[in-house]
């Protein structure tokens, strides 16, 4: 289940807006009811519960993609190693860097 912030981000994107923590605040009172919108100062209407719910699928997709991209970022060699691979590939006519990046991407497909 997508979290509330992700669904609100999707709602904002659909209305040509971006997330701004100064214009929306979320809260959780630890009462078992979960997160809710505490304040909203955008120049568009605050989304209703039904509108937020309609972004569940898009939110799930966005969160899954974010997880894959984070995992990829963690698995790529450090930048200095990648630059060294590219330099050696250039000198030797090899594809070490390209192969390393392709492996990370194939091990962690976007979907």
What do you see in this structure?
- This protein has 111 residues and is mainly α.
- The protein contains 5 helices and 2 strands, in the order αββαααα.
- Strand 1 (24-28) and strand 2 form a beta hairpin.
- The two termini are 17 Å apart.
- The model has no long low-confidence stretch (mean pLDDT 96).
CATH architecture of the largest domain: 2-Layer Sandwich
CATH topology of the largest domain: the name is Phenylalanyl-tRNA Synthetase, Chain B, domain 1
**Broad structural category:** mainly alpha
Biggest beta-sheet profile: 2 strands, antiparallel
Rounded to an integer in angstroms, the radius of gyration calculated over CA atoms is: 20 Å
Helical coverage, percent range: 55-70%
Total discrete domains: 2
What coarse outline follows from CA principal-axis ratios? elongated
Contiguous uncertain segments of 5+ residues:
none
Amino- and carboxy-terminal Cα gap? 17 Å
Please report the first level of CATH classification, the CATH class of the largest domain: Alpha Beta
Enumerate the strands of the largest sheet in spatial order, edge to edge or round the barrel: 1-2
Rounded mean pLDDT score: 96
Number of strands: 2
What is the string of helix and strand elements? HEEHHHH
Total of DSSP H or I helical runs spanning 4+ residues: 5
Residue share in β-strands: 5-15%
Summarize the structure.
This protein is mainly alpha-helical and 111 residues long. The protein is 56% helix and 10% strand.
């Amino acid at each position: 289940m997508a979290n509330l912030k992700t669904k609100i981000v999707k709602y904002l994107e659909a209305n040509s807006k971006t997330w701004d923590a100064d214009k929306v605040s979320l809260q959780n009172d630890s009462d078992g009811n979960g997160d809710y919108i505490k304040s909203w100062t955008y120049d568009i209407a605050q989304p209703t519960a039904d509108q937020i719910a309609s972004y569940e699928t898009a939110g799930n997709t966005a969160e899954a993609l974010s997880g894959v991209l984070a995992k990829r970022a963690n698995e790529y060699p450090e930048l200095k190693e990648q630059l060294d691979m590219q330099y050696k590939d250039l000198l030797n006519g090899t594809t070490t860097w390209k192969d390393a990046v392709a492996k990370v991407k194939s091990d962690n497909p976007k979907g």
